[in-house]
């Protein structure tokens, strides 16, 4: 791609970001019902598949809830916005610190999630995995879904403090994940499919209620990012 080329934004991305802004502004307050897929398609003058893809992305990010046969609703608790004073991770040392914190927080979260997850929690994780598979060729969207997966695990722990810790880490989580994914793909020539499979195995341990396996798989998942970072220092 030449420096002057700009990747065109997909219709579903435009719709998703527009709806996200309307939710953030309070046009669609928490708990409110969104218009039907048909109404949104008519409003945006796009196909229904475009609307469904946009809604799937919003659900994976925690902005909406889709109730089968009952409509689409804005989440009662919206995802945290970027921290008021975001500090970009611009050194190996600071990224290393984030990975260290993630290892403690996320292995604890996934252990609790394995014993406390509800059917709704599992359904949300399954939806995110399905979305991750659909956007395998879109690295930016894959990163968002990746973050959504890890945040949903924290939500499934049903521990308010752990959830708040993950929300606090959201801005740094995006940066650390972006950089660790880049380094991992480069150093190990790993594929997005392989990364998706790791997420699936973590989900399976949560689904099976095996906290020990879930923690071990999460630790292994994060340890790879840590080892690749050390290799590139």
Automatic annotation (TrEMBL):
Gene3D superfamilies: GntR ligand-binding domain-like, Winged helix-like DNA-binding domain superfamily/Winged helix DNA-binding domain. SUPFAM superfamilies: GntR ligand-binding domain-like, Winged helix' DNA-binding domain. Residues 9-77 form the HTH gntR-type domain. It comes from the Bacteria. Transmembrane segments: none annotated. Signal peptide: none annotated. Residues 115-142 form a coiled coil. GO terms for molecular function: DNA binding; DNA-binding transcription factor activity. Keywords: Coiled coil, DNA-binding, Transcription, Transcription regulation. The keyword Ribosomal protein does not apply. InterPro entries: GntR_C, TF_FadR/GntR_C, Tscrpt_reg_HTH_GntR, WH-like_DNA-bd_sf, WH_DNA-bd_sf. PANTHER family: TRANSCRIPTIONAL REGULATOR, GNTR FAMILY, UXU OPERON TRANSCRIPTIONAL REGULATOR. This is FadR/GntR family transcriptional regulator. It comes from Paenibacillus aurantius.
């Amino acid at each position: 791609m030449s420096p002057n080329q700009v990747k065109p934004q997909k219709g579903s991305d435009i719709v998703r970001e527009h709806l996200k802004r309307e939710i953030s502004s309070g046009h669609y307050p928490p708990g409110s019902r969104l218009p039907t897929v048909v109404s949104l398609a008519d409003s945006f003058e796009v196909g229904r598949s475009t609307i469904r893809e946009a809604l799937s992305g919003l659900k994976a990010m925690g902005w909406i809830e889709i109730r089968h046969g009952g409509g689409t609703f804005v989440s009662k608790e919206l995802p945290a916005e970027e921290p008021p004073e975001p500090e970009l991770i611009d050194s190996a040392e600071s990224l290393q610190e984030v990975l260290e914190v993630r290892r403690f927080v996320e292995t604890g979260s996934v252990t609790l999630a394995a014993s406390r997850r509800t059917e709704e929690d599992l359904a949300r994780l399954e939806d995110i995995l399905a979305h991750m598979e659909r956007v395998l060729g879109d690295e930016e969207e894959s990163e968002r879904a990746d973050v959504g997966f890890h945040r949903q695990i924290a939500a499934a722990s049903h521990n308010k403090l752990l959830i708040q810790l993950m929300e606090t880490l959201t801005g740094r989580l995006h940066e650390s994940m972006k950089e660790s994914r880049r380094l991992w793909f480069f150093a190990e020539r790993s594929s997005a499919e392989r990364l998706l499979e790791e997420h699936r195995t973590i989900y399976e341990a949560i689904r099976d209620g095996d906290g020990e396996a879930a923690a071990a798989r999460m630790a292994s998942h994060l340890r790879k990012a840590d080892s690749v970072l050390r290799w590139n220092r």
